């Protein structure tokens, strides 16, 4: 079942919104910014939780992030799963996917995988992301290292001002048409047809 179908049935504005993040958690991924954004939303009465999938780069960094989560009062609103091999199962726990990177990501595969699962993406305007995620169409983009801006983007989904199902479907279509293995193969074939004599 496409995740986008679950969004239409399972999320109504004002209910608890589950934000997903999949990463090797390290400082450049910006999970601290996401936690700060969530704390802002909780302060405004919004019900948001984080489903975080992946290991931490170091035990020291893990302790630092967990301490921040506790300080912000979010320990009951974050699920840290650790490493998981079945990403499709993890995507089903999410209403949208977040990647609050502080620096350029190239073309992050995890964003393409989230789009292929029908999830809208909330990310940052760093190198590579705007080439994949069209702001306002496949998801929403904020400035890097800006908890207030990230919170504002998430709040648009909470309030229903941004339609998660519509953006998820748009991202799914974009991934299929432009970034899937079949579309990439078609692109390579077209280049060869141009270069090689017929």
What secondary-structure arrangement, pairings included, does this model have?
Elements: H1 3-10, E1 17-22, H2 31-43, E2 48-53, H3 59-71, E3 78-80, H4 87-91, E4 96-99, H5 109-116, E5 121-124, H6 129-132, E6 139-142, H7 147-158, H8 164-179, H9 181-195
Helix pairs in contact: 1-8, 2-7, 5-8, 8-9
Can you tell me about this structure?
This protein has helices at residues 3-10, 31-43, 59-71, 87-91, 109-116, 129-132, 147-158, 164-179, 181-195; strands at 17-22, 48-53, 78-80, 96-99, 121-124, 139-142. It is 47% helix and 14% strand. It has 9 helices and 6 strands. The protein has a single domain, classed as Glycogen Phosphorylase B (Rossmann fold, 3-Layer(aba) Sandwich). The model is unreliable at 4-9 and 182-196 (pLDDT under 50). Strands 3-2-1-4-5-6 form a 6-stranded parallel β-sheet, sandwiched between helices. Helix 5 (109-116) links the parallel strand 4 and strand 5 (121-124). It has 198 residues and is of the alpha/beta class. 41% of the residues are buried.
